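[job 4471] stage=fold_predict status=RUNNING
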Amino acid sequence: MAKVTRAGSVAPPDGGWGWMIVAGCFLVTICTRAVTRCISIFFVEFQTHFAQDYSQTAWIHSIVDCMTMLCAPLGSVVSNHLSCQVGIMLGGLLASTGFILGSFATSLKHLYLTLGVLTGLGFALCYSPAIAMVGKYFSRRKALAYGIAMSGSGIGTFILAPVVQLLIEQFSWRGALLILGGFVLNLCVCGALMRPITLKEDHPSAEKNRDHGTQRGDCPQASPYSPLTKEWAHMCLCGSLQQEYGFLLTSDFVVLAVSVLFMAYGCSPLFVYLVPYALSVGVSHHEAAFLMSILGVIDIVGNITFGWLTDRRCLKDYRYVCYLFAVALDGLCYLCLPVLQSFPLLVPFSCTFGYFDGAYVTLIPVVTAEIVGTTSLSSALGVVYFLHAVPYLVSPPIAGWLVDTMGSYTAAFLLCGFAMIFSSVLLGFARIVKRMKRKQLRFLAKESDPKLPLWTNGSVAYSVAKELDQKDEESMATAVTGCNLT
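[job 4471] inference complete, writing structure tokens
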């Protein structure tokens, strides 16, 4: 199918059909992230039915999360080269097929392939393209739009957690998986809402594509196997990759990527082990499922309120700091969890962790957009979510191994907490170093030529002053040479 493009407004409309895009992304997050979280409710059922330990059973949730993030760049590629609508619809079909086939599983390995690999691949084709579309339709109210769209994860968890528990009691885990397979088919409806838009910043890339097309028109005279044709194809491929993924070489994105690795390691195990941990300290099955519901509903509050707050004029320039603050507080919540061993104490924990989890999840696309820009946002989000893959894959089994070895959840929760705190500290330290370098460049620009106006961007001022000095030296050399000749 050819990629559909529409000559929409040259700037993000910040409304109109954009709210339908937000609604579609909201439903996508329900059908992907909320459903993935609710798989942890099946944990005890899988462990009992297949008679396996914590670490073996935890691989199911790990593979779903890993495939969703590992194949996120594939979702970006499909949406960029075909269309966002095609990618999300195809992802919905794959994810539903995985749930349906998983309901007939006879072993954990069967669940690894169906509920893990196939469903995770389907979610990957849906998740990052839907989030990127919100960024294309909104600029001034971007954080609020992302807050509403990403709140689907919390709302879905709040509603689906007790519903899934009820489905397991009524129809067993096989029937519950079959019903969830039908529910996930709604991703195809979400994909139909994703109307493409052409922005002003997309025009330069279109002009480059036309230039490549002109060059292509000159190539039919040569044989398709000639060295000239191969060289042209190689140059076009390298240029396209450099244009889409040039941000990978920037220092800001590298620091963000390293920080995301530690943050992703810390955030994943809680959604796998909150229910088993609550059951281990004497909480009933319904109360444990209710903790997941509380986590989900407060996640909604964090999504929307933090998105609204960071769109205000007083905080708009401090979104980066707000992101660091939310990640660090989630890490502190982890450190307190081992001493909370009753339902009344676990409720405040679920509220606090859920709020700040929703807060930083909302700001991930916003912070990424500030670093790479709107044009490369889809590719950048694909890479950011790709970086979640390995931590999501290994952190729940490592936590399960620690539980099996130590006989308690303390070591697993402390490791996750310190990982999230380190992620926040790393980004904060990088921000401080960058500001110090910027001040140093401004000082050097002022010292090099006090007569030059001092621009806001110190690095630009310094580079221009340096170029002017070089031109003066060249003109003097030319004059001396002329005098010598005469």
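[job 4471] summary: The domain at 18-199+254-437 is CATH 1.20.1250.20 (Growth Hormone; Chain: A;).
[job 4471] exit 0
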